[in-house]
Specification:
This protein is mostly helical. About 60% of the residues lie in helices and about 0% in strands. The protein is built from 16 helices and two strands. Helix 12 (about 255-275) packs across helix 14 (about 315-340) and helix 15 (about 345-355) runs antiparallel to helix 16 (about 370-380). The two termini are about 20 Å apart.
């Protein structure tokens, strides 16, 4: 019972989608996450701390309606549902976070990922002998997620934690289990998460340069002989080469992941080429997608509309729906967190959450994104900023709670 804390119930939202989701029109609703947000409103509601978030959400939704009017996009029922869902979930979880302990939340997330990894490895081993338990692709681990790449996104923040903060023998053993589960997903997303987490963890003082180097190096993976990778990754490399190096329509590729990426990427590029510098508005990517491919042969394709509402991944969605504002937030946010907030563990968790979503998943409420997005700003500080001591030069920095003058209230998972 000691593990059933309010922090534990919050981190369960990272994996609750596949277990507690129900159909809601053309979308799905995560009933558990909605319940957690409702608990935040009912038990922890404080209007003043969330006033800024309310203002930001209202500004985004109002700007989107204005852009819809300018571009003659319909204010669809999907926009109304998603605006209501995003507003309710983010405000409720912000209220909930105001009453959580930073360290206990880290411990709860680490333990949850460890349990998910153990279950996934058991699942993987059973699939080798033909026993399938909550797994769609034999010999590719997905644990409680819908797909292997979705699992890689869900555990992306804890991968950074495993590389940098797991020092005790017990924590290292658990970290090895989690890292092994990531490898067993056999996904391109897992490769990117592994490399970026490694760069951030071991090159903390040059982290932004490591990220830039990886950003330049990742395209060169297309030049590596496909035989060097497992078949599932090799097929995507071949299809991606065909998309970038041949003058072909984006829907002519045979790999579904590349088809989803290419068709949505083209919509994002058209947004900038056509001068929509503020983007298409929240949920406007789908309307731009339908306009882009109207009258083309793609409308008759059996995979027309694949991942169109979430734009395949969150980075494409942000650039398509928010234009240069989205580009500014991504660029400045990454630079700011790596350069100035490396000692704040939850800031690095947020950065890793976006790394995973640069390749897969574009929803604003899936796999714990509200938690990771709000935690750096809404988790209560344990001491005033003036009492925080800077780490000596040349000494590896610690999580924010570990460098405070007062001892942390919760136990770190690395103990």
């Amino acid at each position: 019972m000691k593990y059933l804390t309010k922090e534990f119930f919050l981190v369960l939202t990272v994996f609750s989608k596949e277990v507690f989701s129900v159909g809601a029109g053309e979308s799905t609703a995560d009933l558990y996450q909605i319940g957690v947000a409702a608990a935040g409103f009912l038990y922890y509601f404080r209007p003043r701390p969330i006033a800024g978030l309310v203002t930001a959400l209202c500004a985004v939704f109002a700007l989107s309606v204005i852009l819809f009017t300018l571009y003659e996009f319909p204010v669809s029922s999907m926009f109304q549902r998603q605006a209501a869902a995003v507003g309710f979930i983010y405000l409720g979880i912000a209220c909930y976070l105001l009453n959580c302990d930073r360290d206990r939340l880290v411990v709860a997330y680490f333990r949850l990922c460890y349990v998910a990894a153990v279950f996934g490895i058991i699942q993987f081993c059973l699939s080798a002998v033909g026993i399938l338990i909550l797994i769609k692709l034999p010999m590719r681990l997905d644990s409680f997620a819908a797909e292997p790449s979705h699992y890689a996104v869900a555990v992306a923040p804890v991968i950074y934690y495993c590389f940098r903060y797991c020092r005790s023998p017990k924590a290292r053993r658990r970290a090895v289990v989690i890292l092994s589960s990531l490898v067993l997903t056999v996904s391109t997303t897992a490769v990117a998460v592994f490399l970026v987490a490694f760069a951030l963890a071991f090159y903390s003082r040059r982290g932004i340069f490591a990220i830039l180097a990886l950003s330049v190096a990742m395209p060169f993976l297309l030049m590596v002989p496909p035989d060097a990778f497992p078949e599932v990754i090799a097929s995507r490399i071949i299809s991606m080469r065909e998309y970038f190096y041949q003058d072909a329509n984006p829907w002519e590729t045979t790999n579904l992941t590349v088809l989803s990426f290419a068709t949505n990427f083209e919509v994002m590029l058209s947004t900038f080429k056509e001068g929509r510098i503020l983007g298409n508005g929240f949920c406007g990517h789908l309307a731009a997608y339908e306009r882009q491919y109207s009258g083309t042969a793609f409308e008759l394709h059996p995979r027309y509309g694949i991942n169109a509402p979430p734009a395949h991944c969150l980075v494409i969605r942000m650039l398509s729906e928010f234009g240069f504002l989205g580009l500014l937030v991504l660029g400045f946010g990454s630079w700011h967190f790596v350069s100035y907030r490396r000692t704040d563990l939850w800031s690095m968790f947020l950065l890793m959450a976006f790394v995973g979503r640069a390749l897969k998943l574009g929803s604003w409420v899936d796999y714990g994104l509200p938690l990771f997005l709000l935690a750096p700003f809404y988790l209560p500080r344990m001491a005033p900023r003036t009492s925080v001591r800077r780490a000596p030069r040349g000494v590896r920095s610690l999580p924010s709670s570990a460098v405070l003058s007062n001892p942390p209230r919760g136990r770190l998972a690395a103990e």
